[in-house]
Write a structure and sequence with these properties.
This protein is of the alpha/beta class and 510 residues long. The chain contains 18 helices and eleven strands.
Length: 510
Amino acid sequence: RDVLSTTTSLFASHAISTRYQLLFQLPEKLKRSGQQMTVSLDLLSCLDDQPSQNLLERARDVLPADWTVCSLNICQLPGQASRYLLIVRYHAGLPFILRLPISQKEPVLSEDAESENIRPVLTQLSDILHESDSSCNVKEKQQFWKKRKELDQRLSGLLDEVEDCWLGSWKELLLGELPTSHFSPAALAAVENVDKAVAAEFPHLPFGQAARRLLSKTLVQVCLASWEDRESFAIGLSRLIGIDRSASLLKKLVMTIRQECIVLYDGLDEASEVKRLPVVLIADKTLQQLPWESLPSLYQRQCMSRMPSLSLLIDQLTSLKNRQSLHNRLLDTGIDSKRSYYIVNPLNNLPTTQKTFESWFKKHKNWKGISARRPSAEEYSRALQEKELFLYCGHGGGREFLPCHELEVLQCRAVSFLMGCSSGRLQVAGCFDEQGIALSYLIAGCPAIVAVLWDVTDRDIDRFTLALLDNWLGSHRQLSEVISSARDECKLPHLVGAAPVIYGLPVKCD
């Protein structure tokens, strides 16, 4: 029950192959750059059987204070058939871990009962996407849209199921912190009283004072968010604290938390509309296939981006700090949107996309680029290294114009929009780590990548892309803050709108 060691081991288990690949490409990066580069020593943990205990300390040193890192993992205990969702939440240098049964529909399940397997959800997702691909061959317009809208509703229902049956009342753990201005004196008093109750009733908990206070703050927020789902809250709390949910001490603590929260309940609707501070999501190779960003509780109010591992997040922030002016623009003042480049319809077989964007570029004359022809590898790589915003509207993620092994040795600076089908898909082969072109862009140093998890139709993804550009450029807002409104521009907000996700950092635009 050493929380720090367990958290470190879980974070160190992610994306080992990707960290190896970055280290493998490092000598060529150094040779090409002709200047000193800094790489986080945490990347070397993939070479060590004992991950560094300093991993969390370095994360605390480089992560902005208002960011939260959430890790999602599927685990199975020895001797048990049940599978669990393991949530690690790391904020302000303090982690805690919660283990939830995959299904929370039946709170009376015994510890050794067979819980709902993750496979049906992934199977449903695979079936929906397979039928989506097949539906594109339907020629009759009315039948086409009937099938597409049916699939959109099925995907919406699947996301509801994931939120209700996996996370239950604990969906709050995937939300970032509330801005300080929205945490009222009454809420702070409630946190203080809950903290005293936890300390008095459960002195055995392996938390220091600061970590226990963070736990108490989270418990208040979770309790408010799950006011109508008391049993689910009790299940998670029992696993978090490590005692049976029938114990009188646990029942007493649940009652205490609810009593403290009842005075805050009247302001719950207002608080639920507040946009949260950024979250970086690290999902294991199984769970990364799901569009977590489009869960109902996250859809409109959570700024979320993805990273394959904490080590790579640390390395990206460390590398950016050595390019201080770029670091400041990305995370503070915003990138220079006048330094933009596009590649549209490079195979000359997407005429509608080309027409749509050429019309948009006429209104934004600062953009440079090419359309209706293949880019050379040099044109592609120069755009990524010299520009600050790069838009690719073609098939896939551009692999055929700049192969992964050539891409990965670059030192890129451009925030990249890869709007081709499945450009963000990470494929899993058995026990091996996930692989995909989006990871190659991260290895190359791209600070953020908008990419697509599965195959989509061109016109709807074009609507999304235009809305994202219009809402973000000149807004001085985080990219992850405006993506949900762009999803709403799609005719199919789940089947198409949920497909684009952000890998990398929550960057801003000037």
